[in-house]
Specification:
Nucleotidyltransferase, domain 5, 408 residues, alpha/beta, 42% helix, five-stranded mixed beta sheet, Arc Repressor Mutant, subunit A, binds zinc ion
Length: 408
């Protein structure tokens, strides 16, 4: 059934079509608003009668409002424009990162309303200690939502580890030395007022945002390092999760087959020959890691590398060929259009070194290079949070009236 099937009485069409049409109107307003009813009809191909019915449902639900700005008309009264309002609603993203727990409260438009962040100090093998810190920042964000009078309609928890299962749990975290941890259940036990939440891996969420940052791209490799090394594969516009949730865990590609044992049980994983712990140790920065945490230590490593300091430079020079070799394997596995490098490797000098090693000895097929460009991420440390917010907003726009349940 086409969108045109919604007649003026709105009675002859299925609820699925109605939901889809509501989503089309809400999405048009989110992307191009404010719009008048006739502008919505023109933008969506829906009939004027259908738009009147659909916008009145969305107005009743409080999801859209009349804008102060009207569409000027040549004759008569200017036409009222509508916009996505929903200023009684909020999205919550809680992120567990290498040494920090962050909770971010955002409007449906993605604007930050509140942000709480605390170091968890990387207590190895102790999920409860980390969950306590995660619960503290979550409570701060929930308090702020209450103070602002906003109902939280969507909660995403981001973990920097492979995620899988039903319900999704952290499968294992080699950086925090965790086995399987039900992060969402642990968080909700500590913060009973937290609504239902979904769990995603940080590289999955970040790759989603990288895809949006590269319009037209459908096949992408995301590779990043901050705590450990992680990645994500995007095939035909979708992040591949794999049958167990391990797809894209590029830090554990066993690249140096007879190399050192890895915590994952294999030998010579990429993380054992190019991981942050090795680089920091060789650069003599372990003390800074212990005293000030990973982010500060990695910033110092990059600064030393740029200053040409010999230990940091030698450590990086040894790591780069392994990174490039891993990318070659991934490239030949699914022929991506682009490789995006994130984390502290997104510094242009570091990404440049990876790109040079990757392109060294070009791969020629049909007389021309098939190697994709290797580019630094432009999204900074919040790539995963931005991706989670984008997904949350799309979920809401997909089924806008589901919000009524949360609202009333
Ligand atoms: Zn491993």
């Amino acid at each position: 059934m086409s969108e045109q099937a919604l007649d003026a009485r709105g009675t002859l069409v299925s609820s699925d079509v109605r939901r889809r049409n509501l989503s089309i109107v809400a999405t048009a307003l989110a992307e191009r608003g404010p719009l008048s009813r006739s502008e919505i009809a023109a933008a969506t191909g829906l009939t004027a009668g259908a738009v009147t019915l659909l916008t009145s449902s969305l107005l009743d639900a409080g999801l859209i409002a009349e804008s102060a700005e009207a569409e000027p008309t040549r004759r008569g009264r200017p036409k009222t424009r509508l916009l996505l309002s929903a200023d009684h609603l909020a999205l919550l993203v809680v992120q567990l990162d290498a040494d920090t727990a962050t909770a971010l409260l955002a409007s449906l438009a993605g604007e930050t309303l509140a942000r709480a962040s605390r170091h968890h100090g990387r207590p190895l093998g102790n999920p409860d200690a980390v969950l306590d810190v995660l619960a503290t920042v979550t409570n701060e964000a929930l308090d702020e939502a209450e103070r602002l009078g906003r109902t939280i309609t969507d909660v995403t928890v981001i973990a920097f580890a492979p995620v899988g299962g039903e319900p999704a749990i952290v499968l294992a975290d080699t950086d925090l030395l965790w086995g399987p941890v039900d992060l969402v259940a642990g968080l909700r036990r500590r913060t009973p007022r937290l609504p239902e939440a979904r769990l995603v891996g940080d590289t999955t969420a970040a790759a989603r945002e990288e895809l949006a940052a590269h319009p037209g791209v459908r096949d992408l490799v995301y590779l990043k390092s901050n705590s450990g090394i992680g990645g994500a594969l995007v095939v035909d516009g979708r992040v591949v999760l794999g049958s167990h949730g391990y797809a894209g865990a590029l830090g554990h590609v066993a690249i140096d087959y007879d190399g050192e044992p890895c915590v994952c049980g294999q030998r010579g994983c990429l993380v054992t020959v190019a991981g942050p712990d090795l680089l920091l140790e060789r650069a003599g920065l372990q003390h800074l890691l212990a005293e000030q945490g990973l982010t500060a230590a990695l910033a110092a490593f990059v600064a030393r590398l740029k200053a040409g300091e010999s230990d940091a430079s030698a450590a990086w020079k040894d790591a780069v060929p392994w990174i490039a070799r891993t990318l070659r394997i991934v490239t030949m596995s699914f022929d991506p259009e682009i490789v995006v490098v994130g984390g502290f490797w997104a510094d242009p000098q570091l990404t440049g070194a990876i790109a040079d090693a990757f392109a060294d000895g070009d791969l020629l097929m049909a007389g021309s290079s098939v190697l994709p460009p290797v580019v630094p991420s432009a999204l900074g440390g919040d790539a995963a949070i931005l991706g989670a917010l984008r997904d949350a907003r799309e979920r809401l726009l997909e089924d806008p009236l589901a919000l009524q349940i949360a609202q009333h």
